[in-house]
Amino acid sequence: MSNQVKRIAVTGAAGQICYSLLFRIANGDVFGPDQPVALQLLDLPQAQNAVRGVVMELEDCAFPLLRDVTITDDPKTAFRDIDAGFFVGSRPRSKGMERRDLLSANAEIFRVQGQALNEAAKRDAKVIVVGNPANTNAMILAANAPDFPTANVTAMVRLDHNRALTQLAKKAGVKVDEIKKFVVWGNHSPTMFADWTHAEVNGRKLPEIIGDDSWYRETLIPEVARRGTAIIEARGASSAASAANAAIDHMHDWIHGSNGDWVSMAVSSDGSYGIPEGLMAGVPVICKDGSYERVTGVPVDGFAREMLDRTVGELTEEREAVSALL
Ligand code: NAD
Ligand code: LMR
């Protein structure tokens, strides 16, 4: 990898997730230990002072790879010439809300930022949307950046993927990184589908190793889908360090590759698997040489079809709700 500085925009820089994310990026966890980085931090005017405080702390870590930091409330300044963008800034939900309840509060943010991305970013910049509802926000962002490649706009379902891996590994008595070909399909919402059908451990089918289909359907799938809510109930605030970690995993694998294994990324649908074109839906991808390829031809059985249709139905409803912004 070239040693020219990589420019990385991060929105919502004064928030909870960024309090973990920024330090990991500056440490080299995304682009690697030999790649200098510059951070371009965006937040609202009233949060600028808080961002300055975070930047003082970044300075006090003396990260050798961190070459420059910009603080701004102007999206175009934040996205100027970026190689990567983490779109975190937006309102989180609180107890009693679903992520889709944030649609009206957050959708406009992504319309404005899409236009700025279109004007200012490098055409090969890699973008991840974390702010909820992440899938539909990513669709709004891409729709408002017509000259920016839609394939480079993605949304995060990696937290759900990681959550499921740990529960599966515990149940099977294996290590998380021994599980291959696992995927979370669809929306980052209660309808997401954590699909173990094709998962393997050292060439053996994971469903056979665990041998408990009712645990899969009645415990694993709903617990992964409700994990964000469980964390809000326990912590009084939504997940932060684990969300930052998942964003790092997503971007790291996109840049460096996923070693031939499947990872879950929400990408703009090409119509495969019965997912209408243009919806940002979690699918299995393999990352290699700085890009991702959808895994094609995965068999979808009756139960999986029902689960996929349910989450795709919800994404379609969300798209209708924001049609004025697309
Ligand atoms: P937070 O409230 O701690 O921080 C959000 C930050 O965004 C604040 O500093 C706020 O000022 C800023 N912001 C708001 N509007 C902005 C705008 N227009 N431009 C730039 N910055 C803006 O929230 P958080 O806990 O860091 O969570 C951020 C988002 O990430 C929420 O929407 C949350 O639901 C979502 N999230 C997603 C996942 C996922 O898996 N996709 C996981 C965890 C959290
Ligand atoms: C999560 O899954 O932890 C985040 O999306 C935050 C939330 O609102 O659940």
Automatic annotation (TrEMBL):
The UniProt annotation places substrate binding at R93, R99, N132, R163
One GO molecular-function annotation for this sequence?
Answer: L-malate dehydrogenase (NAD+) activity
**What EC number(s) would the UniProt record show?**
1.1.1.37
Q: Does the keyword Transport apply?
A: no
Reaction(s) catalysed (UniProt annotation): (S)-malate + NAD(+) = oxaloacetate + NADH + H(+)
Looking at the record, the residues that make up the Lactate/malate dehydrogenase C-terminal domain are 158-323
Protein residues bound to NAD(+): G12, A13, A14, G15, Q16, I17, C18, D43, N106, Q113, V130, G131, N132
Per the record, the GO terms for biological process are:
malate metabolic process; tricarboxylic acid cycle
Q: Does the keyword Oxidoreductase apply?
A: yes
Coiled-coil stretches: none
**Organism superkingdom:** Bacteria
Identify the residues that the record assigns to the Lactate/malate dehydrogenase N-terminal domain, covering every copy: 7-146
| Record's keyword terms, sorted | NAD, Oxidoreductase, Tricarboxylic acid cycle
Catalytic residues (positions): H188 (proton acceptor)
The family database entries (HAMAP family) matched by this protein are listed as: Malate_dehydrog_2 (MF_01517)
Give the record's family classification.
Belongs to the LDH/MDH superfamily. MDH type 2 family.
UniProt function note: Catalyzes the reversible oxidation of malate to oxaloacetate.
Query: Any idea what this protein is called?
Result: Malate dehydrogenase
